[in-house]
Design a protein that fits this description.
The protein is of the alpha+beta class and about 200 residues long. The protein has one domain. The protein is built from three helices and twelve strands. Strands 2, 3, 4 and 8 form a four-stranded antiparallel β-sheet that branches. Strands 9-1-10 form a three-stranded antiparallel β-sheet, with helices on one face. α1 packs antiparallel against α2, α1 packs across α3 and α2 packs across α3. The radius of gyration is 16 Å and the shape is globular. The two termini are about 30 Å apart.
Length: about 200
């Protein structure tokens, strides 16, 4: 249970396509910092892994955001967005807190986001009917959620129907990522979350 994004992707992405995805994502890194999103390695420490074979990151354990917020199974409220854009907690839902903005309790790390060029399945994994492999990242609407949604949008742009991206969020919860990509990369606003899936319209 918790706010999560999901995807089905091909087992292997060509080096050319993966380089294009990584190249676009790297252009967004300075903007994440400006927005108050401090990325770290997949365990929340060290540097994020962003290279020709893999993208793997998390929010930083030592993020510098104010501590003291109690965030129990957080979920974005209607219209939620930004990063620490005002008081985070605006109510509760059946399992925890509703957030008006991406926030953390003084530790931005949560679940690792890992997207390799070549997916190496575990023995128990099986592809879907189109031969695509499942992945997910539970962000709990921490600040690094902005980077996760932006990366998935970039991947969708470059891979098209060869990746399916789904989300627990609504279209409004992806607006920040869409606008950031539009301003920095020239695409983004032509995508929308419709019935839980990121689609181009």
């Amino acid at each position: 249970m918790g706010y999560t994004h999901y995807w089905y992707r091909e087992k292997e992405i060509s080096r050319k396509e993966f380089a294009a995805i990584v190249g676009d994502f790297k252009k967004l890194l300075p903007k994440f910092e400006e927005a108050g999103v401090k990325l770290a390695g997949p365990m929340g420490e060290g540097e994020p892994v962003i290279n020709e074979d893999e993208v793997a990151f998390n929010g930083a354990v030592d993020c510098g955001h104010p501590a003291g917020y109690e965030l129990v199974i957080p979920w974005p409220a209607p219209g939620a967005g930004g990063v620490f854009a005002g008081e985070p907690v605006v109510g509760t839902w059946s399992a925890g807190h509703l957030l008006a903005t991406r926030a953390c309790p003084g530790d931005c790390s949560y679940e690792s986001f890992v997207f390799p060029r070549v997916h190496v399945p575990h023995e128990w994994e099986r592809p879907d009917e189109r031969g695509r492999w499942f992945g997910f990242c539970k962000t709990a609407f921490r600040p690094y959620d902005l980077a996760v949604t932006a990366f998935l949008l970039v991947a969708k742009r470059h891979l098209g129907d060869r990746i399916a991206v789904a989300t627990d969020g609504e279209d409004e919860h992806w607006f920040d990522a869409k606008l950031l990509c539009q301003l920095e990369l020239g695409y983004g606003l032509e995508y929308a979350v419709v019935e839980g899936e990121l689609v181009r319209y």
